Amino acid sequence: MVTLIVNGKRSQVDAPSDMPLLWVIREKLALTGTKYGCGVSLCGSCTVHVDGQPVRACTTPLSAVAGKKITTIEGLSAKSAHPVQKAWVELDVPQCGFCQTGQIMSAAALLAKNANPTDADIDAAMSGNICRCGTYQRIRAGIHRAAQIKKGGA
Amino acid sequence: MATARTTRVRVSRRALLKGGLAVGTGLIVGFRLPVTGARTALAQAGTFAPNQWISIDRDGAVTIVNSVVEMGQGSITTMPAIVADELDTNLDNVKVTQAPANPKLYGNPVTGAQSYGGSRGVRDHIDMLRKAGAAAREMLMQAGANEWGVPVTEVDTDLDTVVHKPTGRRLPYSALVDKAAKLPVPQNPTLKTPDKFRYMGKVMHRRDTPLKVNGSAVFGMDVVVPGMLIASIERCPVFGGKVKSYDASATKRIKGVKDVVQVTNGVAVVADSFWTAVRGRQALKVVWDNGGMADVTSASIRQGYIDGAKEAGQVARNDGDADKALAAGGKTVEAIYEVPFLEHACMEPMNATASVKPGSCEIWAPTQSPGGTQQTGAKVSGLPAEKVIVNTTYLGGGFGRRGEQDFILDALETSKAVGAPVKVMWTRPDDIQHGFYRPATYNVFKASLDAQGSPTAWWNRVVGPGILIQKGRAQAGTIDAAAMEGVRNMPYSIPNVHVEWVNRDYGVPIGFWRSVGPSQNGFIVESFVDEMAHAAGKDPVEFRKDLLGKSPRHKAVLELAAAKANWGTALPAGRARGCAVMFSYGSYVAHVAEVSVAADGKVRVHKLVGAIDAGFAVNPDQVKAQMEGGGIYALTALLYGAITIDRGRVKQSNFDDYPMLRISEAPVMETHILDSGQPAGGLGEPGVPTVAPAVCNAVFALTGKRIRSLPIQQDQLKRA
């Protein structure tokens, strides 16, 4: 049994300690917003926050996150109120949407430490997240817009 | 029981009434009506459901069925909006449901199939959906006119309300539901004039965005069915190989592994978790019968193409006498173009969930072909197709890959074998290595120009496999239409044109990859035309325009893209522009690319300016989204895309050796929409074909080096 704190909720998980966090989240905790895309930290679809840092859940063993604060897309905000989520809706960023929960978690982590990201900051923080539908231009615009929303911009 | 039976009888009678009307007008109806008691998903007592697309209940709640699967192209937003516009209902309040598999009711009205590819969403459905909405509106208007005892000509609608124009009296649709349901369905309702559109042609926010920003959108991978097990399948690495024998003893010792079963596509490890199933695969010992492809390599395929290029092919087009014109002298241009196999790499790896039990079969799948999925379900379960229930989830990308049935078959066979609902999930390497690839081709070009630089001959021999032939959808020995798309119909007015095809298929599974034939034929045709322009000493845009006198729509998008990209104006040192134009899937697209090349040969695309004439842009922001997405899809292929074959197997396995373009490499993209008022064209694919040639033509303008083989090899452009 491993104790996990996911989206503020503490739970006991019965799973092997080397099981990747991704599958614990998806299959044991039934939080399916975090996606499997590559299994080897190449695509970013499984991005979650561990103690506020963006982490690829597909290569993070359960043992490494015991007792740490994990946030998934489902726990990013109540009612999709995070500035990144608001900006994404405003600009209709997603197409198929499969990678977008990971994109949003990476973007939210960026904005948490950098309220005014430049294009270069965005490139550095978001290059680990692949979007096969090619929504990059809107992701970039979405992050700039989210930064405005966060600062109280209309 | 009695209640259910009563309901059924009532629905049948209503359906029969409409069926009779449909029969009377033959097949020339805007929407197919239920025949002989067929039930629509929406026909319930107390609702007005004049056709399979619409229902309005006594509370005024409007439900519209979307048949075109949502794979990112915005169909779940755009298609219902077409109906809602003609129905004159408030789109914000409309509930949208995804159609069950039932090709008779929900099949594409042009193809008849409940299968979505070929950029057939808006263009194939718009007329039918408009009529469906307009017919319902006319029935509500007639019901209102009857209530007031006035001629229907005095009646109009205003968002979910019927209005009597002379007196201003109003009745909500909800109050007319029962009466409208008794009226005959007009077969040729009057459609709105475009100036009356509320939604079409305007900004419509995507209906699915809110679900896609909080993790609640259910993709195939996210399906949970009570009692469901999760499986992963070990597949023969060699194409066409089969299981000879396997030893699952070590696998079965792993905690959580429930069963190991052989299926058509390999050996399925069935477990309580995907991770357990994958570990179970690693412990499997499988002896494969590699079949007949174990010696096939990319080099052997290429050699086969080179040999094939020396043979005469089947003639796909022959205007004038190209051989004679080429022999007559003048300036000649010759080139060989090659493109590789490509995998779709949908962001969501293949998966499907099925529950096959005696007497029932249900499938949950991210499929582009609900109709095909139903047929596969029927084959595996032995049930009649109409008994097979198909639930289409959101698709994490489609691009043509998800029209195939292999991943559906996996789930059905595994579920049947273990007697429980099973979700079969593919790993990323499974997905990359067991695809249906965009065909690799080899293409020979020759052209001649007269003293004024005007082309006198165009000669083109395409060598490669045919998708339709390999899939048994076209007869062997015929010319594969998919292979010829974009070369046979190249638009330039040249007096002598000869195009032929040599079929060379070495067994690599091939399929429909976003924009299919034009994905490579746009590159080869538009690159070679550019070579001709330079040989003629003419500006590439002007050279094309001179040859597009008979193709005004090509010319118009090319002019628009060129103007918006400031074609012909100076750029900073180290940058250049290139252009390309093409027709595909009913739409005309031109691109102008602005590029630079680093000293190490790395190509950087700074800007892509696109122009599209899709007739009428129903959802302009999503037209832009498709152009943006098509641009990135094409750039990924151009800069990185190559599936190579070694000993009958795919060498690549994940995003390290089959890389995708990332945000840091994404250009600024502009899309300019030209509404020509012509019939609606496709949107998902036409944005792809012109990107690679526009970029390569810019690279030539900058470096003098012509890219004739994809993907771009950095070394070729390296400065010493």
Describe, in plain words, how this protein is organized in 3D.
The complex is a heterodimer of chains A (154) and B (720). Chain A is of the alpha+beta class and 154 residues long. Chain A has two domains: 2-75, Roll (Ubiquitin-like (UB roll)); 78-150, [2Fe-2S]-binding domain (DNA polymerase, domain 1, Orthogonal Bundle), CATH 1.10.150. Chain A has five helices and five strands. A five-stranded mixed β-sheet of chain A has the order 2-1-5-3-4, with helices on both faces. In chain A, strand 3 and strand 4 (53-56) form a beta hairpin. The termini of chain A are far apart. The relative contact order of chain A is 0.16. Chain B folds into three domains: 2-209, Aldehyde oxidase/xanthine dehydrogenase, molybdopterin binding domain (Aldehyde Oxidoreductase, domain 4, 2-Layer Sandwich); 220-291 and 350-425, Aldehyde oxidase/xanthine dehydrogenase, molybdopterin binding domain (Aldehyde Oxidoreductase, domain 4), CATH 3.30.365.10; 298-341 and 437-717, Aldehyde Oxidoreductase, domain 4, CATH 3.30.365.10. Chain B has 21 helices and 27 strands. In chain B, strands 10-11-8-18-15-16-17 form a seven-stranded mixed β-sheet, with helices on both faces. Chain B has a five-stranded mixed β-sheet with strand order 13-21-20-19-14, with helices on both faces. Chain B has a four-stranded mixed β-sheet with strand order 1-2-3-4. In chain B, helix 4 (121-148) packs across helix 5 (173-181) and helix 11 (370-381) packs parallel to helix 12 (406-418). The N and C termini of chain B lie far apart (84 Å). Chains A and B meet through helix 1, helix 2, helix 3, helix 4 and helix 5 of A and helix 6 and helix 19 of B.
